[in-house]
Amino acid sequence: MSKCDACGKTENMPYRCHHCGGTYCSEHRLPEAHDCPGLDDWGDPDGVFDSGFDDSVDDGGGNGGLGDRLSVDTGPGSILGYFRGNATYTMLGLMWVTFLLQHLVVLVGIPIGGPTWSAIFTLQPQHPEYVWTWFTSVFSHAPLSLGHIALNSIVIFFFGRIVEDYVGSKQFTILFLVSGALAGLGQIGLSHLLVFLDYQPALGAGVLGASGAGLAIMGVLTVLNPSLRVYLYFLIPVPIWAITGFYLIVSVAGILGVGGGFTGGNVADMAHLVGLVIGLWYGSQVKGQRRTPNQLQFGGGGRGPGGPGGPGGPGRGRF
Q: Quick one: fold of 92-318?
């Protein structure tokens, strides 16, 4: 059961406002009944109905959106229309499709972990010029194991929708891709720096995984509502700032070489830290636009976070 954000009434079947992200009873479900910030945009059709998926692209003369110029149907009944408000699920779907492809390529003679496989799915410090791996590595995860992708999926599934509802599908997609890519680049950048300073003899392993993006999402929520309570298994209330702070400490400790007991030897700690910092910064830029929930439940099927990333597999840094 949830409580109405306006009156505190317990509601078995709450209504969720798509403008401000709040949860309300039947009496306060309408925007005008709970002083919704989205009312400021009510006179602007774009502010009320547009998720930003097909915003206009200024080419010097046209006034229509990109979809109009390409004669692509992005309306509610179209295939592309599905992605409005569903960027979180789209990212999750791409993660699992990529995970499947990581294994299916064996059927065409590409062994898992081989040079070609790594050039497709892994961001390698030896080949930062492989620009496509800046993004494919975000959706790729440690092969032959469900733990890595499952943990990342949990945090993105439970936390991603809140952030997407707050900033919109377009901005969420940009946040996910940019934070994931910069997290990976930060990790291989650290590897190059350590070699340059003679702290290690050779470049480290490549990196893959969506934990950088997952921690960016957590960072955003931490700024928007630091007291957001995450109920682990419905019993243990933990404020999100404590969870984020834990990952911050562990990541810094791992970078300094004193966190092996927590993270193991193949975790991309710099990627975690970069993603978290990006999320904290972005959250500070968008804070105050709308409301966020006050609690989440995690465990047994409830709403809540998962821990992004996980211990690394041999030969690759998982993040």
A: Rhomboid-like fold (1.20.1540)
